[in-house]
Design brief:
- By secondary structure, the chain is of the alpha/beta class.
- Helix 4 links the parallel strand 3 and strand 4.
- It is globular.
- The termini are far apart.
- The structure holds pyridoxal-5'-phosphate.
């Protein structure tokens, strides 16, 4: 029986027999071939979606959180704390509930998707909405956790990155080799750091013959790494990557440069187009931040970036149901009301 990623990849993770493993069977997510979406992007690519929305709380954050919470338990901490654009708080709340820990969450006021807020609340976290943005919330959490015996479970926590790197292992285990390119959204830049670490570790172990080029995408209104300076007032519909001063900035640059990849930006309009294409062409539902790399790949495809047949993998970081408001806003029509008889239904479907 699958028992979670710490069990599966124990030899690659900083755990011992004394680590109390807190798992909700995260990881082991499907790598879904996406031929219709690939054709929309470029005739050169064979595209696979790493559907991280199928983790227990609906995002890749569970990979890091199972490690961070297990280590917090090992260290005897009673309370954890994070700043969050939403998914970190959902995950921290769920894993804390399972471990019997207190969880404190700071969210940027009014800027988190409804599903994520619901999750933090149902799992019993203490949720505070800060009158400020993510970067300000994270600064507060860093201050408080440095002064009190509270574990910080943002991706500054090195165990988060360790857990998240296992997604690279799964991709290579599934493909039998590394992809030529790996694309993902970049917010606080922990995940691009983790993937690159994972790909390099597996390569060193001889599990793949080469390394992928890393393709990171930020939202145009919150693209500090692309612009080369922090963004004071980050804005984007993709709230999970609405971050103006990424904590893992330097390691994101290292992932880009060591792999020979790129970090670029996409507009909200391009993100929404990608959102429609993924859902309509493949039947896979991911939240807006998750499809930023799809929008980015489309731009690369149009510019002739892919010159030879290439295997491309993309992390779809979070489930589309996290953000029902964007989903409904993006649907052109509300359900039409019809009478409960066959004539009305057929007429409304233009079948009469
Ligand atoms: C956290 C998150 C991101 C950004 O990941 P970073 O590690 O902060 O770069 C992207 N998409 C979703 C859905 C997320 O929850």
């Amino acid at each position: 029986m699958y028992k979670g990623l710490i069990d599966r990849y124990r030899e690659y993770l900083p755990v011992t027999d004394k680590t109390p493993v807190i798992s909700i069977h995260e990881g082991n997510t499907p790598l879904i071939r996406a031929p219709r979406l690939a054709a929309w992007i470029s005739p050169k690519i064979d595209l696979y979606l790493k559907y991280e929305g199928l983790n227990p709380t609906g995002s890749f954050k569970d990979r890091g959180m199972c490690m961070a919470i297990s280590k917090a338990m090992e260290e005897g901490v009673k309370t954890v704390m994070c700043a969050s654009t939403g998914n970190t708080s959902a995950s921290a709340a769920a894993y804390s509930a399972r471990a019997g820990l207190e969880c404190h969450v700071l969210i940027p006021g009014g800027k988190i998707a409804l599903g994520k807020l619901a999750q933090a609340l149902v799992h019993g976290a203490k949720v505070l909405a800060v009158e400020g943005n993510f970067d300000e919330a994270l600064k507060l959490v860093r201050d408080i956790t440095s002064r009190y015996p509270i574990a910080l479970v943002n991706s500054l926590n090195p165990y988060r990155i360790q857990g998240q790197k296992t997604a690279s292992f799964e991709i290579i285990d599934d493909l039998g080799n590394s992809p030529d390119f790996h694309a993902l959204p970049v917010g606080n830049a922990g995940n691009i750091t983790a993937y690159w670490m994972g790909f390099k570790e597996y390569h060193k172990k001889g599990k793949c013959s080469a390394l992928p080029k890393m393709l990171g995408f930020q939202a145009a209104g919150s693209a500090p790494i692309v612009e080369g300076h922090p963004v004071k007032h980050p804005e984007t519909i993709a709230t999970a990557i609405r971050i103006g001063n990424p904590a893992s900035w330097q390691s994101a640059l290292a992932a880009r440069d060591e792999s020979g990849g790129i970090i670029d930006k996409v507009t909200d309009e391009q993100i929404l187009e990608a959102y429609r294409m993924v859902t309509r062409l493949e039947g896979v539902f991911a939240e807006p931040a998750s499809v930023a790399p799809i929008a980015g790949l489309k731009l690369l495809g149009e510019s002739g970036y892919f010159t030879k047949p290439s295997v491309v993998t993309v992390t779809l970081t979070g489930h589309g149901l996290k953000d029902p408001q964007t989903a409904v806003n993006q649907s052109s029509a509300q359900p039409k009301v019809v009478s409960a008889n066959i004539e009305s239904v057929l007429q409304a479907l233009n079948m009469q």
